[in-house]
Amino acid sequence: MQSQQPLKINFLVDSIGQAGTYFRFHNLAIGLTKLGHQVTIFAGDGDTNSKARTELRDQIPYHVLPSFPGQRYFSATNHPLNALRRALVDYPACDVAHVFQPFLSAGLPWQFSLKHKAKVRFYDWDDLWLGGVIATDVRPKQFVAKWQKYWISRIEQNFPAQADHVTTCSHFLAERAKQRQAKDVSIIHNGFWGFDVLDKATARKNFGMQPDALYVGFMGRTFASPDWCFEAIANNIERYPQLRFAICGITTEILELMGEWQQVPDEVKARVEMFGHIPSQKTREFSAAIDLGLLNLADTSFNQSRFPIKYAEYMATATPVLCSEVGECAMLSRSFPWVTLAGTTKSEWLVAFDQAVAAIANGTMPKVDLDAIAAQLSWAEISKKLEQAYYQTLSHKSF
Fold first, then answer.
1. How many angstroms separate the CA atoms of 227 and 230, rounded?
2. Within-domain flag for 166
3. Residue 257: which residues within 8 A CB-CB, separation 6 or more?
């Protein structure tokens, strides 16, 4: 094993937008920095009017380049000029170059520019794109969609074999990486940082929630199958007059565009409280304010591949969770008695919802063990696992 000296690590990411994978690489960067390593993040900015700049986020340096015009044809993440400009950057030599997501803007410099600047190269895969986000059996009509599908599928197929090591968020993607000739794979989950949890009464007061209601809640921008949740509320309106549904991260307007809000009965709408987009720090208060976190996942390849960050963030505030028995969440949940497993179908979800709400209402829901959660899902422990993957891979290379 190579002597465990502090490492110089370059993260290559497509965007600085605070959503999705941002919270994965940003928190890993914080965790690695706390372990004594030097992490620098090289990113793009979708704003064509911004300037090339360096900024600090939680003491992590971000080197950011703006996007060229033409996003309507190429998107910012797969814009060929963005990729070329980033590939021409004189990157500092590093021990590890770690690229996140299968996008051209970060993938091209990782593939060529960092090939001789990094001792080892890692590829992080935390969503299934082709066959997940992007349907394989649908031919895009717009050029931008065709362009996106071509490059994402090409990179997603080839990068696992090109990397010295692949990190994934799930066993599902780990197996896919091995099928694509990955040399080595580590499963790196998404987690949370410990913090002083706000008491429920204060959290509810801050959001203007009813102090004595029984709140189920959903947070996040990926709200697939919302009809499951609304139907669950409808089924319990008469049984629990105090039952309410709090939602953050998504707006009524988006639900209308999805064609979902129009289908919700008025008596259910009266139980729903929409808080829209809130700062990431406020999600802690939101989670502390609710009695049950909802994580409804249809049994699809996309959901089998992912590991929603909200899974750990709910439990970080000692909030029990109702979770579909799909993918990585299902594997972990079997050892967590405060997680109610909700099967893989809508009908199973509705039955499990009734059971979870009843357990909360009558005081029989098991308490969340924060120490047990932290042992598996704290960013501090997760970062140590990634650190060891770096050291192990470096020890196998001859320089």
1. 5
2. yes
3. none
* Closest among 136, 286, 304, 307 to 205, alpha carbons compared: 286
User: Alpha carbon of 235 to those of 82, 228, 229, 361: distances in Å?
Assistant: 50, 11, 10, 15
Which of 124, 68, 117 lies closest to 95, judged by CA? 117
pLDDT in tens, the chain (399 residues): 445 899 999 999 999 988 889 999 999 999 999 999 999 999 999 889 999 999 999 999 999 999 999 998 999 999 999 999 999 999 999 999 999 999 999 999 999 988 889 999 999 999 998 887 777 777 888 999 999 999 999 999 999 999 999 999 999 999 999 999 999 999 999 999 988 899 999 999 999 999 999 999 998 776 667 889 999 999 999 999 999 999 998 888 888 887 888 888 999 999 999 999 888 889 999 999 999 999 998 899 999 999 998 999 999 999 999 999 999 999 999 999 999 999 999 999 999 999 999 999 999 999 999 999 999 999 999 999 999 999 999 998 865
- CB contact at 8 A, 109 and 132: no
Domain that holds residue 56: 8-191+378-395
Cβ-contact 144, 72 below 8 angstroms:
yes
Identify whether 301 is part of a domain: yes
Q: Name the residue among 397, 304, 393, 312 with its Cα closest to residue 123.
A: 393
Q: Does residue 359 sit in the same domain as residue 385? A: no
387 with 362, same domain? no
What phi and psi values does residue 198 have, to the nearest 5 degrees?
-70, 140
pTM above the 0.85 mark? Answer: yes
Q: Are residues 183 and 252 in the same domain?
A: no
Cβ contact 374:381 at 8 Å: yes
Residue 212 and residue 236 share a domain: yes
CB of 178 closer than 8 Å to CB of 186: no
DSSP class per residue in 338-364: TEEE--SSHHHHHHHHHHHHHHHHTT-
Q: Are residues 164 and 205 both part of a single domain?
A: no
Classify residue 119: in a domain, yes or no. yes
Say how many residues make up the chain.
Answer: 399
Report d(CA 101, CA 152) in Å as an integer. Answer: 9
